[in-house]
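Lab notebook, design round three. We kept the backbone fixed and only want residue identities now. Task for the bench partner: fill in a sequence for the structure below.
Input structure tokens:
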């Protein structure tokens, strides 16, 4: 189930017993966040470049990524209700895909896949080396091709289950990109029937009525769960949401939220009301949020220097943050274990607190941004940058001065 792959119980590092080795956390929930991730310039495949960026959409994407990290650290199921990050990220990516498809479809799809897959390939190489070093050997070599083109879940070991759990989002995004030329054509011809078809497929998925078996079933369930959000991104880009009366959008969103909330409440999971385990509730609740967020937006957004830089960085490195945040969470546990052996840290730092692990994760994510984030620039055919925040602004100013000189 979609958010189940995003989900996972938090791995709070306890004080190891005397003589115990480094504590390595177990898998974080079922085989989702994700990340989450889509950038303003690529809709999931890399940080956007150039001018004309929508600061509001950038803010939504940055909040979605932060929420994914918070969720994976603390394991709070209620966060899926407070801010359905995955549905929002798919809607933003759908909007950007519709905008890009003003150009020839083949070149657009190739560009989006390149922006997604180049960072993924580096992640894939690192994870496979780690798994091989831990004694894993693939049972089926042809399935290793899924580490190159993740049309289904790639093979892995239980040891790395937490690290590779978010790959369901990459797989679902990949399929939606491949299908976008046909989806956009169908949606523009008949938007309401397309949305209704998405709803019908989610109902079938919820009640296990899709005529499929594994390994095809899970990818299709994830796909149909978030397809409506992708289509609502189309509607946003085409101006269909703005063309509707405000009260119409509010009524439709309220209907989705009430129906999704009621279904989630009446179908709780073992962890409580977690939308990731309930496809129908996930689809309805996410659609309701997307309708409100994309139809109603602040008229003005004041610039906050520190916050703007963080938002820009998260958007420029969205794929990196999404792919590597679970690695950072995984690595934070042995790192904090080492801190227990330093008397000063043991006496003055809350090493057993989950919020301290959350704070520790962000420098590790920052290290990933510096070490591997430049692959997103390569994938977008830009000059590689170690820390992209603020780079585009300086570039625009420089171009402006050059234009004035001419």
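Proposed sequence:
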């Amino acid at each position: 189930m979609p958010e189940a792959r995003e989900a996972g119980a938090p791995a709070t590092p306890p004080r190891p017993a005397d003589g115990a080795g480094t504590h390595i956390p177990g898998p974080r929930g079922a085989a989702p966040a994700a990340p989450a991730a889509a950038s303003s310039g690529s809709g999931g495949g890399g940080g956007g470049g150039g001018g004309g960026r929508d600061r509001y959409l950038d803010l939504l994407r940055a909040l979605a990524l932060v929420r994914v990290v918070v969720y994976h650290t603390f394991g709070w199921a209620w966060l899926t209700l407070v801010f359905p990050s995955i549905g929002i990220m798919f809607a933003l990516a759908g909007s950007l895909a519709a905008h890009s498809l003003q150009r020839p479809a083949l070149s657009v799809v190739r560009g989006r896949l390149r922006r997604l897959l180049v960072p993924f390939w580096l992640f894939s190489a690192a994870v496979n080396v780690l798994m091989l070093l831990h004694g894993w050997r693939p049972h089926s070599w042809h399935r290793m091709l899924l580490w190159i083109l993740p049309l289904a879940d790639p093979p892995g070991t239980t040891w790395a289950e937490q690290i590779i759990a978010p790959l369901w989002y990459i797989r679902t995004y990949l399929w939606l990109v491949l299908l976008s030329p046909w989806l956009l054509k169908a949606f523009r011809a008949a938007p309401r029937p397309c949305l209704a078809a998405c709803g019908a497929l989610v109902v079938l998925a919820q009640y296990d009525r899709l005529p499929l078996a594994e390994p095809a079933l899970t990818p299709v369930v994830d796909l149909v769960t978030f397809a409506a959000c992708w289509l609502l991104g189309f509607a946003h880009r085409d101006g269909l949401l703005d063309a509707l009366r405000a009260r119409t959008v509010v009524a439709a969103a309220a209907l989705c939220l009430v129906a999704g909330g009621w279904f989630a409440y009446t179908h709780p999971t073992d962890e409580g009301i977690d939308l990731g385990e309930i496809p129908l509730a996930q689809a309805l609740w996410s659609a309701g949020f997307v309708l409100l967020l994309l139809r109603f937006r602040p008229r003005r957004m004041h610039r906050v220097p520190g916050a703007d830089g963080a938002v820009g960085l998260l958007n420029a490195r969205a794929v990196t943050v999404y792919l590597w945040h679970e690695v950072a969470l995984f690595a934070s546990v042995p790192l904090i274990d080492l801190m227990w052996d330093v008397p000063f840290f043991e006496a003055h730092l809350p090493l057993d607190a989950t919020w301290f692990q959350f704070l520790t994760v962000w420098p590790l994510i920052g290290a990933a941004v510096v070490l591997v984030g430049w692959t997103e620039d390569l994938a977008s055919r830009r000059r590689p940058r170690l820390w992209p925040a603020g780079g585009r602004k300086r570039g625009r100013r420089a171009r402006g001065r050059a234009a004035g000189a001419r």
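Keep this in mind before ordering anything: The radius of gyration is 21 Å.
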